[in-house]
Design a protein that fits this description.
Layout lengths: L5 E5 L3 H14 L4 E5 L2 H10 L2 E7 L7 H7 L5 E8 L4 H9 L5 E4 L4 H13 L4 H22 L1
Helix pairs in contact: 1-5, 4-6
Length: 150
């Protein structure tokens, strides 16, 4: 990971936003981490500068994280990650195709997983094959949950 990589964290819950920021700064000290409590604030920050990684929660008041990610171009955020406590098959499909996300972070998140994912995305070692395998596993889990609910 290059010195000064920039990450933007977007979550309407302050405790999650701040704990994730503190985790990343403690474990990946070369990062520069900005935070936003809403998609509206994220757009304001993205209009001012480019970020190497955008991590956003899915469910937020106003514009949700999926809508935010779909509107952000590669010039403003190189990598995209969606956090959610509400895994749904339709959400996963829309996230992969419309918002071009590279990974999901399930809530509650596992600190080691988040640090590893962020580090690997920023240093370029997170491969398309791993991304596809993670999506396949997510979709299989969502299908399993959907089948169990019927």
């Amino acid at each position: 990971m290059k010195e000064g990589s920039r990450v933007l964290l977007v979550d309407d819950e302050e405790d999650i936003r701040e704990s994730l920021r503190d985790l990343l700064l403690a474990c990946l000290p070369r990062l520069d981490v900005a935070v936003a409590p809403s998609a509206e604030e994220a757009h304001r920050l993205l209009d001012l500068e480019r970020f190497d990684l955008l991590i956003t929660d899915y469910r937020m008041p106003g514009e949700d994280g999926l809508q935010l990610l779909a509107r952000v171009d590669d010039e403003r955020a190189a990598h995209r990650v969606l956090m959610t406590a509400y895994p749904e098959l339709d959400l996963a499909t829309r996230a992969i195709t419309g918002a071009r996300i590279e990974a999901f972070i399930p809530k509650p998140f596992e600190p080691e997983h988040v640090v590893d994912l962020v580090g690997r995305l920023l240093d370029g070692t997170y491969s398309e094959r791993e991304r596809d395998a993670a999506f396949d596993a997510t979709l299989a889990e969502l299908r399993r949950r959907t089948a169990n609910e019927k």
